[in-house]
# Entry
Amino acid sequence: MPQKYNSIIFDLGGVLYDIDAQRTKDAFAQIGLEDFNRFYTLEQQIHLFDSLEKGFIDEKEFVQGINSISGRFFSADQVKNAWNALLIGMPSENIDLLKALKKEGYALYLLSNTNIFHYDAIRDELKTNFGLNALGDLFDEAYYSFQIGMRKPDAEIFEFVMKSSAIDPDKAVFIDDNEDNIRASIMAGLPAIHKQKNMSLPELLKKFVY
# Structure
């Protein structure tokens, strides 16, 4: 039976990698920033976080920005540790799943809104736990928002990925846990599937992709 798709584009956090934004909210509260949700949630965020995710500011400028919006002074380590608290980990079964998909002949891509803090932390985790030099080792190409100066749900990022990797949208699908990103992908001409919390990634692939 022929494959319905030959290319799969994955989001990272909430799809392949487990995250919990409440942990970062709690971590910032512990150091004295008790209203962190005014500035950042998984659904919406202020310009400071957009700039970090697009690579327009570096780690030092982000720390300065947190201090500015909070009217407090936090050290670089305090901000880094609180910001990284949302990172839970990469399930080993997702590593195995990506390797199996690759063996089956799928072209695999990663499209993630992320930042230098989380990128470095995940890279170190994958090297320690799985012997991978980078998450990109599992994909034909990995696109990180902070490296390309674009972020979801802007249409330009989907157009950029499809053009850069010569992806045929008629044979490709994008998987994300954010409904705004799903709608934007479809509007850009790239079919998309919404991964909901109550469905595992293998279940989703079996139902919609295979």
User: Anything to note?
Assistant: The mean pLDDT is 95. The two ends are 10 Å apart (CA to CA).
